Amino acid sequence: MDLRRRALLGVDGLRVLLMLFHTVTRIMAEQEVENLSGLSTNPEKDIFVVRENGTTCLMAEFAAKFIVPYDVWASNYVDLITEQADISLTRGAEVKGHCGHDESELQVFWVDRAYALKMLFLKESHNTSKGPEATWKLSKVQFVYDSSEKTHFKDAVSAGKHTANSHHLSALVTPAGKSYECQAQQTISLASSDPQKTVTMILSAVHIQPFDIISDFVFSEEHKCPVDEREQLEETLPLILGLILGLVIVVTLVIYHIHHKMTANQVQIPRDRSQYKHMG
Fold this sequence. Notes:
Radius of gyration: 33 Å
Helix content: 10-25%
CATH topology of the domain at 29-223: Porin
Order of helices and strands: HEEEEEEEEEEEEEEH
């Protein structure tokens, strides 16, 4: 019985050690993150990297601003009026994250954790006429803000922590294996726990890849957002039309020059009948 009890204790101890090892490994993987905002030439943009097992598994570059409505007392201290706080994601923010096969997450904290941003990414597979195709998307955004923070909120009524969430979000949809890039501003509405308040999240200068990064610290091929593609077309279309117009003018001038040269070498028949006696 003693031997059996010792064996059971040994198995239980080994199981506990394995669980502890797995937990510690997972925690270490989640904490292997870097804020590389100092490498950006844009003072408003942050660069975040999540690495697991010594390999980059999530990269994100973007500038973010949050427009948060909040209540203050009117001058009569009876009525409430709504003010607006503009909160920007500051450089040097604290970052956490983790990566998975079909789910990855990025968390960012700033101003002594008065503000926190959580972004959840999902990878999905769809059946199309061309066969199964995989895409990834931003599926959830959560923004936690503290209206007792005096820098952005002044004399807020019912000051305290509030949480704003997205609902049924499907943003930044990108083919699997590619990164998402968009310079244009993108707006996402978040429903706040502060009654009847909607927080607006504005993203710009976005470059994100939460899955399938092949090279360390290097984005894969870019998938550009429709707004950027349209703006690029609007910028290049006048140039293309100008080149076509210039080519048409050149071709017209060449044809005219050739025609003029050919007709100049032909014998001219006199129109005045009196001149026929000098011919032949």
